[in-house]
Fold:
Amino acid sequence: MKPLDYSALHTRLNLKMFLWPLSLYIPTVIAACSNGDIGLLFFGYTSIAYALIVAWLISWQRSKRIENFALANNLQPNPYYFYGQAPPALQGMGHSEDNDYIYDIPLRDSWATIFQHKYTVGNDKYQHTFTFTIMVLTNLKKYPHLFLDGQQNGASYAYAAAQRISLEGNFDKSFKLYAPEGLNIDALSILAPDVMQTLVDGGRPYDIEIVGDKMYIIAKGNQYTEPALKAMRQFGQDLLDEFDHKSVSWRPNDLQDATPLRENWFRGFVSGESRPASLTYLGLAIFIVILFFAVIEPAILSSMSN
Structure:
């Protein structure tokens, strides 16, 4: 594959940028300490403001690293993914979905698109934002909708468990395979032993989703580091090589296109991605049930008996 210049990703934080808010913060602290309770309150607010400024500066510098990495390697943005497009397994898992750092990145004889996808679950102080780094391989033959849930990546509850297929050997320890009902034979034909070996060798940190002529490699968190990008590029190339071999004998049909994976009815509620908000609502529901049987119901029965 074409070597890339990763030096921009190794740039350290510029600590000088934190001096100007610090120069405002220190006099504020000194003044606050000499003004009793009001000064203490003011000190709390200024501390929060300083922490927010520092967090923004760190985020901005990280963004500049990625932008400089793209400039150094002449990576072009891919406008198709600007508007929140994501693998079906991640769609509708939360609100405020957004894509960022969207670039076409070279493999050996082709290109892939890499981007960060974010969504938020919960509201107010209970909200949490989840980040995924996604590589998209395109221009494949059309394949049925398959989802490989990597066990190192945490369990996914996106699709109904009835569609899960168990495969031979130790493959199930690395991945859970989901295929539309009625397409088991097609799924087993795609995941031949050589493909499974490639998945186990390089793909265990990822979830993989195949939809038509696209393949999504999904990693949790920010993967814009040299080791992570190298590993993802190499695995993407290895998968493309396997599917190039597969394309010689593969014959797509209309049934495959018309049969997507069936989503879980409780998708997003018990999902590991949305668990903080889910547990809040679940706890509230349990509290209401306990309140009813422990307090309200006895009170109603007591009033009826009187």
Notes: The first strand starts at residue 95 and ends at 106. Confidence is low (pLDDT under 50) at residues 270-278. Strands lie at 95-106, 111-121, 128-137, 143-150, 164-165, 175-178, 207-212, 214-220.
